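User: quick one, fold this
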Amino acid sequence: MVNSVLRFVHSAQRIILTLSILLPTSCSHAKPTATLEPIRVQYSFATQPWLVSLNNCAGKSIVVSELRAANFQDPQSVDLVLRFSQPDILTTPSYQIGKDDLIVIVNPQNPVNQLTSDQVRGIFTGRIQTWEVINGTKTQVQVWVFPPGEDVQQIFDRSALGGSPINSQARLANNPTEMSQVVSKDINAIGLLTRRWKTGHLSDVFTVASGLPVLAITQSVPHGVLTQILACLEK
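Assistant:
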């Protein structure tokens, strides 16, 4: 009985010794796990709807996104910048990944269902102060705009106002959600949005620009996984 136990112990010792020799050798040949570099992205609030597509196209790559007004975006510090702009005014490579419309919105209870370009210009510059000349009511028009650093506001200023200053009494909405909320709650309010952000609680009465390009801007000619992501977004 004792001999059998000793033989069992010696066999176990040989197995442990063999494993201690083999295991380091096996591990030394294991392939290192590749580390995925994050895709750093800056986006304006108007382009936020495209983040879903960006994350889908990135696959296993990690997208690290940061919200920035157009005036504070820096293509040299990140991999991608998403914004509304015209390619011919950019100094870095850009790729169109979508398009959207810029529209003027009012409260759905407002009897106005259409505005002319002259009326829009008059309202947003302060030349038209009340709704009387438009829908017959003498109530004050409440104008809402975005901060001047936002891409949609810059496009609106150029396209709708021709560079004329905005009404000094206009109020600022910090993002599309706030713009939607304030206009939907005030029958005398008027503002602007991209069509992607418009909800059923708002009425659009004027199209400032149709098919505005949504651009993905890079600091240099893209390569590697960034090329694949851009190709996916452009489909």
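User: anything notable?
Assistant: The chain is about 35% helix and 25% strand.
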